[in-house]
Amino acid sequence: MGTPGNGDSRPDREGLPDLPAEWGTIVVPDDASALDAEAAQVRRELRRRRRVVRPGAGPVDGHPGRFEPASLRIPLLIVSLAVLAALTSLIAVIWQGQRQSDDTPGTSGGGAVPAATLPALDLTGPDGAPVPVRGLLPAVLVLVKDCACDAQIRAVAAGSPAQVTVVPVGGRPAPTGAPGPGIAPIRPLGDPDARLDAFVDGLVPGQPGPTVLLVAASGRIVRTLPAATPVEAYREDLALLPSR
To answer: How far is the C-alpha of 202 from the C-alpha of 74, rounded, in Å?
Structure first.
């Protein structure tokens, strides 16, 4: 059924070279279907060679014989790094915003938020001697402006740490006396030249009536509020004045 092709010389070869002797006898079948088994074996071998298996890699999705192509490793690595960088940037932005929020003076209770530092002013004591106001920090300055604020001044002193000085400025005589346990001292001072009044008017224009300034140990004005604001509205700020 087949035609032998073992390299015998025949006139019709027209100068074609003989097949290598190590190939042995080659038989070309008349029906190509007789080579189906050999063709299937060759295809299996080619598929096996085309698979790229990573060293130490296991089957993909639990299917034996299916492996992750090496060509996907670099894109997956790039995508993972991009996601990690985005998350890191997001966390950094949130953290920085939280820090700025913590450092920004509060506005609850009707307080304004001045970005200002208390100037180096000299007020006057009961004896007329000059008193550098920055030497009393941290402090709560109460610009009384002729109001009957005694009860409010005592409430502020009771709600402030002992390291804070409550300073009523101007107006009628304010309550004085040695502080009790855990109560801030009260130090009434005068402002004959109205320099502090002018500074506060420029800081919070148009605010009527007495004003309370919360001044941190650094000299930064944390909050300004109407003197009638309940102490509970800014008690947390009072507690933080010595550390700011």
So the answer is: 62
Q: Any idea what DSSP says for residue 88?
A: H
Kindly list the distances between the CA atom of residue 61 and the CA atoms of 33, 51, 80, 211, in Å, as whole numbers in the listed order. Answer: 37, 16, 20, 71
- Dist. CA 11–CA 3, nearest whole Å: 16
d(CA 220, CA 118): 6
* pLDDT tens per residue, range 147-189: 777 888 888 888 888 899 999 887 554 555 555 666 788 888 8
Q: What is the pTM of this model?
A: 0.51
Task: Give burial (CB, 10 Å; 0-12/13-18/19+) of 188.
Answer: buried
16: left (phi over 0), alpha (psi -120 to 50) or beta: beta
d(CA 63, CA 61): 6
HSE-CB of 96 using CA atoms within 13 angstroms: 6
User: Distance (Å, rounded) from C-alpha 164 to C-alpha 228?
Assistant: 20
Element (H, E) at 236: helix 235-240
Q: Tell the residue number behind the tokens 């800081």, with chain if given.
A: 203
Strand partners, 141: 167, 213
Q: Which two tokens stand for residue 6?
A: 């073992």
The string of pLDDT tens digits covering residues 83-123 is 999 999 888 888 776 655 554 444 344 454 446 888 888 89
Name the burial class of residue 103, with classes exposed (0-12), middle (13-18) and buried (19+) by CB atoms within 10 angstroms of its CB: exposed
Give the mean model confidence (pLDDT) for residues 213-231: 87
